[in-house]
Amino acid sequence: MTIDRAGLAGFLRRRRAALQPEDVGLVRGARRRTSGLRREEVALLCNMSTDYYAKLERQRGPEPSEQLIASIARGLHLSVDERDHLLRLAGLNAPARRPADPHVSPGLLRILERMDDTPAEIITELGETLHQSPLGVALTGDRTSYRGPARSIGYRRFVDPATRQLYAPEDHPLHTRVFASGLRQIATLRGPGSRAAYFVNLLLAESKEFRQVWEKHEVAIPPLVKRFVHPDVGMLELHYQSLADPERSHRLSVFTAVPGTESHEKLQRLTAVAASSPTHSMPCR
What we know:
The protein is α+β, with helices and mostly antiparallel strands. The protein has helices at about 5-20, 40-45, 50-55, 65-75, 80-90, 105-115, 135-140, 155-160, 160-165, 170-190, 195-205, 210-215, 260-275, and strands at about 120-125, 130, 225-230, 235-245, 250-255. It has two domains: about 5-90, 434 Repressor (Amino-terminal Domain) (Orthogonal Bundle), CATH 1.10.260; about 105-275, Beta-Lactamase (2-Layer Sandwich). The two termini are about 40 Å apart.
C-alpha cells in the first residue's frame, strides 16, 4: 500500500475541526475563535511535535509509522473504523476483511428464513440486497431485482429520486452522510480498482450532493433508527440492528419496532397484509 497524502491530510483536518476542547478534556479559553481543535492541541494529545503534525496536514514530511498513526487515532478519539481508515490512508495494513462474495452462507440464510414477522435482508458491503424476508419485501419492495450499480441502495440514494421517498424527508441529510461515509470506508478498505472505488467515481461524476458530502471525510456513521414511509400504513419508526457474517462481507440487517408503539401496530398490520398476499409489495425503490 502507498500513502494517500491528500486523503490523509483531508481526513485529519476534518476530524480536528469536528472536535471541541471539552471533547478531549481541554479547557476552552474565553477568547477562543477556532471552531475545532488547534494543531498544537492535537499534537499535545498525540505526543508529537506541532511541526510534525502540521506537515501531515500539509501533505509533507516523512511517512508516519503504525505507532504514530495509533497515537493520532487515540488523540483524535477515533472509532475503530476510523482508526483503520486512517491506517490505510497512511499506506499501512489494517485488520483484513474478506471481500464481498455473492454466495451467502447457509447459516445466515437459516436465520433469515425464520424471520417471517420481521423486515430483514442480507446485503453486501456495498449495500446490494441478496435476499429479503417476506416482510422485508412488503416494507421496501423487491430490492433483489436491480442490475448494475443500481443494485446498491447507496448508489440509488444519490441518483434515483424515488429511492428517497422510502424515508422521512427530514432524515435525508443524515442518510446522505450515512451512505457516503460507509462507501468511503469500503473504498479505502478495498483500494483503487475495486468496485467500491468504481462506485465512488460514478457518484462523484453524477451527483453534486455526493460530491459535497464526500468532502467531509466522514467514516462509519451508524443508522440506529430509520423512519420509513409506506404507502399503505404510513410512517414507521424502526430500530436497526446488523449481524455480520464472520466468513464473508455480508450483513443481516433487521428492523424492529418498540412494542406498544404506533409503529409496532403498523408493522403488525403490514405483516398481516404480507401473509395474506405473498406477492404483495410496495413499488420497488
